[in-house]
Design goal:
With about 425 residues, the protein is an alpha/beta fold. The chain has a domain at about 5-190: Rossmann fold (3-Layer(aba) Sandwich). The chain has helices at about 5-10, 15-35, 45-50, 55-65, 80-85, 100-105, 115-125, 130-135, 145-155, 170-190, 200-220, 230-240, 245-265, 290-295, 310-315, 325-335, 350-360, 375-390, 410-420; strands at about 70-75, 90-95, 135-140, 160-165, 275-280, 300-305, 365-370, 395-400. The strands form two sheets. The chain has a four-stranded parallel sheet with strand order 2-1-3-4, sandwiched between helices. A four-stranded parallel sheet has the order 6-5-7-8, sandwiched between helices. It binds iron/sulfur cluster (SF4) (2 copies). One iron/sulfur cluster (SF4) binds near residues 78, 143, 284 and 342.
Length: about 425
């Protein structure tokens, strides 16, 4: 593997602290991922990405910057990548998924804030993540209160544009979101120096739709009675999709989907027959947060679907690419993006409808509703989710978790008991 230290040094990273992170990640990945048996061969690409996660892609981003391109860091699936790609910008997801970054975040944020936000701020301020260093500009959004305040802090350290999310989905909120997308386009044009044209936006819509289509194929395969891929592996594919090149992402996802479809035809499953099929719903699981999937799949269950932003919310629904003027295209983008159902919206019945629909489509035996500690939005919405699932006759277990592992054994006991009940 290439020596990445000069690159990290040039990015102003804290190499000593970063060494500590580099020491723990491969061990965790080995224990959680490489210990699995009978994995699809095409997971080798994703293993390779993780093995050099702070090397290959950051170097690609730096090379692109050297060619005059700009990199935009995003934190939420409502931010339309298409607008950035249309101006020849590059998008990289920045959500922090490791406990490693939390203490640094807690230096400037209250402890009673969700670990995803604390880790995201800690990764930047602690200078231990190259993606947070490479990005020329961050695009925030006003989804939850914690994030709003975090943008103010990050905005002191890095150029930041914040998109003002509507909190409801009425026609006037829709119009407002179109305006926010137009504003983003203006900021992106100014930062990149490139004009967005109907042609470039149409091409960007095509590229991102292709990525969604390819990821959907993997999920489609997970609906089969023969489960051709573990939930952990499927989660990893989506986590990496957030920062990979979108065209390569689609290409690799298609290859994996081909293999999964062949496995189904050949009756190759990664779980014994009768393994309980579980859907996970709730807060996103940013890389390297693999905890809940690992607990379920080492307790006798199989995760077959995630109703989350690191799951179906990321790739469901295509953008209508039939429009040929920018105003109509921005409207088409707003249509697709406002179809995502995050708990930051009120009312949010459509998310509950999605959960019931997905539970049926993936033929699940039970649902685990997971929220990160201090995420009041998903915690509050959990009541309605549980009620609706119970009414639909679908067993549900609600769990709260943090990034550290102190609750792992307690969670395992509850998951095992839930799986036993399903039997
Ligand atoms: S859970 Fe909500 S705020 Fe978080 S990434 Fe998803 S849409 Fe954005
Ligand atoms: S998990 Fe909840 S509190 Fe944390 S960033 Fe997402 S919506 Fe906000």
């Amino acid at each position: 593997m290439a020596d990445r230290r000069p690159m990290w040094e040039n990015l102003g990273m804290d190499l000593e602290a970063h060494d500590q992170l580099c020491a723990v990640l491969p061990v965790a990945f080995g224990d959680i991922y490489l210990s699995q048996e009978n994995r699809p061969e095409n997971m080798a690409f994703y293993d390779m990405v993780v093995a050099d996660i702070h090397g290959i892609r950051p170097q690609e981003l730096l090379d692109a910057q050297a060619d005059g391109r700009k990199v935009f860091g995003t934190f939420c699936v409502y931010v339309p990548d298409e607008v950035i790609i249309a101006a020849d910008g590059i998008v990289t997801g920045l959500c922090g998924g490791s406990q490693f970054w939390v203490p640094e975040g807690e230096k400037v944020l209250p402890k009673s804030m969700c670990p995803l936000i604390k880790a995201s701020v800690g990764a930047r301020l602690g200078r231990t993540c190259p993606y947070f260093r490479v990005a020329d500009m961050y695009i925030g959004e006003t989804t939850c209160d914690g994030k709003k305040k975090a943008w103010e802090i990050l905005g002191e350290d890095v150029p930041m544009h914040v998109m003002d999310m509507p909190q409801m989905k009425r026609p006037r909120d829709h119009e407002k979101w179109v305006g926010e997308i137009e504003d983003l386009a203006g900021v992106v044009e100014e930062t990149t120096g490139n004009e967005i044209t109907p042609e470039s936006l149409s091409e960007a819509i095509r590229i991102v739709n292709e990525k969604r289509r390819a990821l959907s194929r993997i999920y489609e395969a997970r609906k089969s009675k023969t489960i051709p891929i573990s939930g952990k592996d499927a989660l990893l594919v989506v986590q990496i999709a957030f920062f990979d090149d979108p065209e390569r992402c689609a290409q690799m996802a298609d290859k994996l989907a081909d293999e999964l479809e062949q496995r189904i035809a050949d009756g190759v499953s990664v779980f014994p027959e009768g393994t309980k099929r579980i859907m996970i719903t709730g807060t996103p699981m940013a890389i390297p947060n693999w905890k809940m999937h690992h607990l379920v799949e080492t307790s006798g269950g199989a995760v077959v679907c995630e109703e989350s932003c690191t799951g179906t919310r990321y790739f469901e629904h295509q953008v209508d690419n039939s429009a040929d003027t920018l105003p109509e295209q921005y409207k088409a983008l707003a249509d697709r993006y406002l179809n995502i159902n995050c708990a930051c919206f009120t009312p949010n019945e459509t998310r509950i409808e999605d959960i019931i629909r997905l539970a049926k489509e993936y033929d699940v035996d039970g649902v685990i509703d997971v929220h990160l500690k201090f995420c009041t939005l998903y915690d509050t919405e959990s009541e309605s989710v549980q009620d609706a699932l119970k009414k639909a006759g679908i067993p549900v277990l609600a769990l709260e978790t943090d990034y550290d592992d102190s609750d792992a054994e307690q969670l395992r006991t509850r998951i095992e008991a839930f799986l036993e009940v399903l039997d």
